[in-house]
Amino acid sequence: MSEIEPSHLLAPRPKYYDFVMHTVVPSIIWKMGGLEQRGGEVINDISGPIIIAPNHRHFNDTFAVHQAVYDATIEQTQMYSIAKDELRTGKFARIKEKFIEWGGGIFVDQEATTIPVETEEKIDNVLRNNGILLIFPEGTRMSGPIIDLKKPKGVPRLAAKAGATVVPVGIGGTEVDEAGKHGPYRVVFGEPIEIEAAPGVPNNIPDIEKNKLQRKSDRIMVANARMLRDVLTGHIQEVFDEAQSWSNSDR
What is the CA radius of gyration of the chain? Predict the structure, then answer.
């Protein structure tokens, strides 16, 4: 197994990141019955930016994936994640906001038609520096055993733009059943999906040539995003089924 690319370890880490990952998250996971992961070591062999794309059934899914990546990678790799803006509202809003930020969260308003420049720059910086970004393509917490990505959130566009490798992930055990119980947390990492980056367009060329190259770049990005959208559902469903089966067998 190759050594992890140093560029995966973005510096500086969010303030108190190690405290959150060493102390807070393991405590939450332990209280929920513990966590095991399968296949996460594949991240060690990927160079370039990575997008982690899991199913989403419970608030604790984020903790589960963060812990699984942290445990599986050689250098206890830091991971950033897209967080819904509404998570920093309501009761204990300030505490939740700081905790999520310390854990590498980047807040995004999913109802907005455009992403603020500052937020876009944060996301681009993670991927540009070969970082690891967690995005739930279902967009919000769902229920049941079926993955439905008719309109996958963010993953195809960002992966196609950055040429990021997408790792489908299944999370089992976090969803509460009819008896009000959950299973042991089990996280399964699937086969990485490599995406070709759309070529960049230099600024120091005539406008006619620049526009021509931009159109070509846009076509490649759209084609790659469409391809990923078409295959991602099946890949996540496969590892989700495996994670659920694993969790159920360990109850």
Answer: 18
